[in-house]
Amino acid sequence: MKIIRFRTKDGMFRVAAESSWTLHQVFDDLSSKIPQFPRYDRVYLGKTPQDVTESAAPYLESTIEELNFANGQLLYLKWDTIGGPSSSTQDSVPTSNPISIDSLGIKKLVSAPKAVSQLPVDDFLDSQEGTIPRKRGQFCHHSDRGMCEYCSPLPPWDNKYKEEHGIKHISFHAYVKEMNESKNKKNSVGSYISPLVEQNYKITSHCPSGHAPWPKGICSKCQPSAITLQQQKFRLVDHVEFSSSGIINDFINCWRLNGCQRIGLLMGTYEVYDKVPLGVKAKVEAIYEMPQLDLEDGLTYTELNEENEAALKELAENLGLQPVGVIFTDLTDAGLGDGSVICKRHKDSFFLSSLEIKFAARLQLKYPNICKWSDSGKFSSKFVTCVVSGNTKGDIDISSYQVSQSGEALVEADLICASTHPDMAIVNKTNEVRYVPDIFFQKINQYGIQVKVNAKPHFPAEYLLVSLTHGFPTGESQSVSLFSDTSSFPIENREHVGESQDWKAIKKSVDFSTHDLHNLRQSLANFHLLLYLSTTGILSKEELQLLFQTVRGKEETRETSFYKLLESSGFKTLTTIIQTS
Amino acid sequence: MFSNLGQAFFRAQQASGFEDYFRCYPVSMMPGSSSREVANFGGKIFLPPSTLHKLTMLHISYPMLFELTNQETGRSTHSGVLEFLAEEGRCYLPQWMMSTLGIQTGGLLKIKNCDLPLGSFVKIEPQSVDFLEISDPKAVLENVLRNFTTLTVDDIFEVSYNNKVFGIKVLEVKPESSSHGICVIETDLETDFAPPVGYVEPDYKKEKKQSQINPTATNPGLVGQGSMAKKINYSDLLKQEPNATNFQGSGVKLSGKTVKKEEVVSPDTSGLSLEGQPAPLILPDNQLFFGYPLKPYKGDNETDDKNTNQNPLFAGQGQTLRKSKKRKDKSTQSTSTKDKTRSPDAIIIDSD
Question: Ranges for the MPN domain (chain A) (predicted)?
């Protein structure tokens, strides 16, 4: 039994080896002690610290006896850390500086924003400077041709501009530019630090420092640091625009009929919003109401089955739409007989209950925002949550919100829980599955000083929210809604209030026998009707494509597609069925 | 009947008419156990049988109506007759009639038979606001006036309903006549009500406003009692540990007697409020719940009013005996000698 000592860069290790052990077996023992022990053929041995050049590879099968190691012998070990897939970078956290190896085996650090495909609106806004032009101000003492600090263009993240115009949060692209300004311009050209880092509050399950995962062990490297909750300065989407008030009216109509709340998926696109510097708006074209069970104080919706989900996705893609948000009602009639509703959500009660915040965060995690400026390729989400409820005057009004990125991270790490008090969120306790770090939030206490308060056991949930504005297109905006208002085809999943989708309903809303083709085309441009037709299977795939093209796209293509559709056999079959039903 | 009336009237005019004096007593003093209550709240009196004989001799017109006059006060009223069962020389009147006439028990009353026109209209004034509590005054009056034969202006007759006595004054009658009375048998009487004595007109606008600010009474969804709340057992979640205190366990008495455990009163389920600690609300991913207890929106002016209206418990300035060192105005005190320029410690005079 010989004891051999090995001195490595990780420290001194002892191996009690039998004489008959091979070097391979000795290294086995060592690798259980040294977490990042490399492949044995890459290890170098040496008797003096300067002379560690002998590779261990040829000696792996020789015994200790043969190698003539004395008892208590000290040997120096060395190995290459950089390069090779067998090194220790298996479970490392992805860094912002991916290492790329070109064909010559030379490693170089590539520092650039992630190569991901963003939404067109994001690409457009990235290309914009976003500075706010100013005219000659009160303090300008120069001629018209000159420019001073009082009339030079403002950066899009300027605080004073934001307060003057009542913008609660700066837009996301303005924030990215601000971060880039502070992090990347000062640095040399070579290195790039991604301005956005996604907060991750989960404990890393395989910590590089080699201890057992939670709950058996923890160290400062894998433990998530203390979280300070703050209002998010920016918001991913600034405005929600409903392309016509009829969309909302039809949605609320279900509540008017049976007094129960309703939920729907907002289908639309993201576009540039010009009222806010570098702003983004979500343009809602239609509301898809999924199958649900409604009550006057709650609702349960069922996830779509395979084919309906596929049909919805296909229709959305063909029309250039995507899910941009979710909308639900929380209306209670005030009993005054004039249609006013009770104001339940206001600054003294709550805006979005903790349950709804968790719900919104889950949906935001499902539809992430692809962003090249983030180290992980995605950052938060553009998904919005809208509530139809009573405002302080008693009128039915819409409020739109998004959950902040740290809120999403809290929900992903399962650190918070909804509570019976809607304005409070409860912090979960640490257990075998999750580790809950300290969470603080800033508050102005009774003495008027801003202090950090521990968020446990519960904290005001509004720290996780940002609010958005909403509106309808004003006369001046050029965008025309994709769908026409005229069609009165009933909305899906409303059988319980008597509005069902069947051939009779189609007959009522679309007049197939008319000679006014323009009118016919208009009445076909209804989201719910298109979805219904795509599920019936009367029209073939090509015919469905033609149908979708009549709704979307340039005017000329729309007309030609429409005429082709009219000629198609499927459409003629459809017309016959309708007219004979 | 009318032709008969005309004939009887003609005949009555031939005879002199009935007129007599009686000692009057309240109905409650009448011997016999017949239902005095009904009689006391009616408009008919008891007369002796001899009166009946006289009246039949005289062939008077029916119904038999009498004018009662108290000679001392000059007050008069009219009434019908219930029964001829009184003792001779006596008549028994309802209590209210005695007070209307202002006559004492045993006083002398002149009773004369008379004729009254059939009434078409009467205006009455309840003497107390309690009359408004009656849900259907029309039906009550119809029932009660069955016991009355006549109504005279300035009568305050009493009726009993639901174990309560209501006084009602007759303000005016139609057709008007010198006797100021009407016969109310077998006639349709139009009734007009004057406001009861002691009635104050309520402020309708205020009432309407008050009723508006309480929709929680009608809507269970606003107090955490809606259908979804029941499904997820929201009220139980909210009320968990209502009696939790930091000091658990029972107490011990030195005397050795057992400490009675307080009965746990079951909490009132009608009003859930958001006091108490928040409890976790765990629902499946696809469920949303809106039925939290309502916190109504208070307009900004209301909160301001509240602040200004809070009367300080102890108004007025305080006084202190000790002269505070920290008084703001230091003009009364000597000026501080802290940082003033001082003359040098030693003044060297050049004596040369």
Answer: 240-379
